[in-house]
């Protein structure tokens, strides 16, 4: 057998084997249908209002944790849920409007597959401590109301303070893309960023939350294939309401018998009539034994003077005398190393400060805010004047922390990042992200696909394969024709 006869079969064999190898090694799973969108609902039963959030994500997860894309919200009209503790049977009706709104936002065929959660925070947490029976009745009524909705009701629960702050931390770092980020191809890759901390200023207390290393105390979370331990240091008596009460109590005592008391932290021309008993009650108040204590019913006229330097000194004195908040001086060594962490501040005062002052330096921005008059403050926002009046005190408190070595991200807006208009509900995003670990992921259908370069190579190989086969057939035909001609010639010669 000549080489002309052997070449085409070997060519076919080599081309076929190469094609098989390329098909096996270079194939990809390509989904045959677009990724389905899933929805989740979280109701925030907060201290000032109740908000229903709808979150959505695709069925694909990143290391077992969901990637939430969008959010929309509905604020429940009426008083906060706590006000229904004496008549819990009425609480379900206030949720109807937002639940109907959620039904219109989520496709009907997915209502029964949409998990529904309610988390109760500060006010109901306090009610549970003081009147557990009232708290249980209120949560039972909420459970009945939510179970009657078409959604997949999961649970009603009271979040502990450490859990709430841990979920705040998750949400902040998720929005900042500290868990992962998208590269230029739109694919998820490790971010390489360190985790940010969170300073959350509430009404009664302030919380400082950051990640800790090793087997230390804190809330453990499994997110995007990694384990994080988050520690929250609770600082009672340093929320907005308590800072205001303690500061007014100090001013009134120092003024002695005067009925009109100037307040350098309030805006010029702003005033309130304040009863002594309203600012000097509860565990956070401290009396100076060297000064006269007013009668409980005595009323004082507190007037703002817009004096930033005097306000700074006053707030510093107030905080230097604090014994309930150790991180004002030294953070517990066993808990975390916050001085190595950059903190994002969850506070309406910080959002206002960032939006209304052009100074990039925190101290200068606080001075400008504390110099504003009532007219200048109300011109910038629709927030109530009583709330605006306390922004100087809170901002001065944040600045005081910055002098202790804490680093705050003054340029990053929590409100802009979350686009919810209410920074007190940031925890709902972190709460649902953590729960997506347990939400079943759909099993998509795939087809086998190959890269364009491999497809081109296979095309060339199969062209060679067909060409070789054609050459083989042509050669065999030619051989037979020549053999037939030679046989005929031989017959004629014999004749």
TrEMBL record:
<feature type="transmembrane region" description="Helical">
    <location>
        <begin position="453"/>
        <end position="475"/>
    </location>
</feature>
<dbReference type="InterPro" id="IPR000407">
    <property type="entry name" value="GDA1_CD39_NTPase"/>
</dbReference>
<dbReference type="Pfam" id="PF01150">
    <property type="entry name" value="GDA1_CD39"/>
</dbReference>
<keyword id="KW-0547">Nucleotide-binding</keyword>
<keyword id="KW-0472">Membrane</keyword>
<dbReference type="GO" id="GO:0017111">
    <property type="term" value="F:ribonucleoside triphosphate phosphatase activity"/>
</dbReference>
<protein>
    <recommendedName>
        <fullName>Ectonucleoside triphosphate diphosphohydrolase 2</fullName>
    </recommendedName>
</protein>
<keyword id="KW-1133">Transmembrane helix</keyword>
<dbReference type="GO" id="GO:0009134">
    <property type="term" value="P:nucleoside diphosphate catabolic process"/>
</dbReference>
<dbReference type="GO" id="GO:0045134">
    <property type="term" value="F:UDP phosphatase activity"/>
</dbReference>
<dbReference type="GO" id="GO:0004382">
    <property type="term" value="F:GDP phosphatase activity"/>
</dbReference>
<dbReference type="GO" id="GO:0005886">
    <property type="term" value="C:plasma membrane"/>
</dbReference>
<comment type="similarity">
    <text>Belongs to the GDA1/CD39 NTPase family.</text>
</comment>
<feature type="active site" description="Proton acceptor">
    <location>
        <position position="164"/>
    </location>
</feature>
<keyword id="KW-0067">ATP-binding</keyword>
<feature type="binding site">
    <location>
        <begin position="203"/>
        <end position="207"/>
    </location>
    <ligand>
        <name>ATP</name>
    </ligand>
</feature>
<dbReference type="GO" id="GO:0005524">
    <property type="term" value="F:ATP binding"/>
</dbReference>
<keyword id="KW-0378">Hydrolase</keyword>
<keyword id="KW-0812">Transmembrane</keyword>
């Amino acid at each position: 057998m000549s080489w002309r006869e052997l070449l085409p079969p070997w060519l076919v064999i080599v081309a076929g084997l190469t094609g098989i190898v390329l098909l096996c090694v270079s194939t990809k799973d390509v989904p045959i249908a677009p990724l389905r969108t899933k929805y989740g609902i979280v109701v925030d039963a907060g201290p000032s209002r109740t908000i229903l959030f709808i979150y959505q994500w695709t069925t694909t997860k990143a290391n077992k944790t969901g990637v939430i894309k969008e959010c929309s919200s509905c604020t429940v009209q009426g008083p906060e849920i706590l006000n229904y503790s004496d008549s819990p049977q009425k609480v379900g009706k206030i949720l109807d409007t937002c639940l109907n709104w959620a039904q219109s936002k989520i496709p009907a065929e997915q209502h029964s597959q949409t998990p529904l959660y309610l988390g109760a925070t500060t006010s109901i947490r306090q009610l549970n401590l003081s009147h557990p029976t009232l708290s249980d009745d209120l949560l039972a009524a909420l459970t009945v109301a939510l179970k009657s909705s078409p959604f997949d009701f999961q649970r009603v629960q009271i979040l502990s303070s450490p859990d709430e702050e841990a979920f705040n931390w998750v949400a902040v770092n998720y929005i900042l893309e500290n868990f992962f980020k998208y590269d230029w191809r739109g694919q998820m890759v490790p971010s390489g960023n360190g985790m940010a901390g969170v300073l959350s200023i509430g009404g009664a207390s302030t919380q400082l939350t950051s990640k800790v290393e090793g087997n230390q105390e804190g809330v453990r979370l499994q997110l995007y294939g990694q384990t994080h331990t988050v520690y929250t240091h609770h600082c009672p008596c340093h929320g907005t309401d308590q800072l205001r009460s303690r500061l007014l109590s100090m001013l009134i005592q120092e003024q002695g018998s005067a009925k009109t008391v100037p307040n350098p932290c309030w805006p010029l021309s702003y005033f309130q009539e304040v009863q002594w008993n309203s600012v000097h009650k509860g565990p956070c108040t401290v009396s100076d034994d060297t000064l006269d204590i007013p009668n409980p019913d005595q009323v004082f006229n507190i007037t703002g003077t817009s004096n930033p330097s005097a306000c700074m000194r006053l707030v510093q004195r107030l905080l230097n005398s604090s014994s309930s908040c150790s991180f004002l001086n030294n953070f517990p060594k066993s808990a975390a190393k916050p001085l190595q962490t950059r903190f994002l501040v969850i506070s309406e005062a910080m959002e206002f400060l960032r939006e209304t002052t052009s100074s990039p330096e925190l101290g200068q921005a606080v001075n400008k805010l504390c110099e504003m008059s009532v007219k200048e403050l109300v011109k910038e926002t629709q927030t109530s004047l009583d709330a605006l009046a306390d922004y100087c005190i809170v901002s001065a408190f944040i600045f005081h922390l910055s002098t202790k070595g804490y680093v705050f991200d003054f340029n990053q807006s929590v409100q802009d990042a979350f686009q919810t208009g209410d920074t007190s509900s940031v925890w709902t995003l972190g709460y649902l992200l953590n729960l997506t670990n347990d939400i079943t992921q759909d099993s998509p259908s795939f087809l086998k696909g190959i890269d364009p370069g491999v497809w081109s190579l296979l095309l060339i190989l199969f062209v060679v394969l067909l060409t070789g086969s054609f050459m083989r057939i042509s050669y065999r035909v030619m051989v037979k024709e020549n053999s037939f001609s030679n046989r005929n010639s031989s017959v004629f010669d014999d004749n």
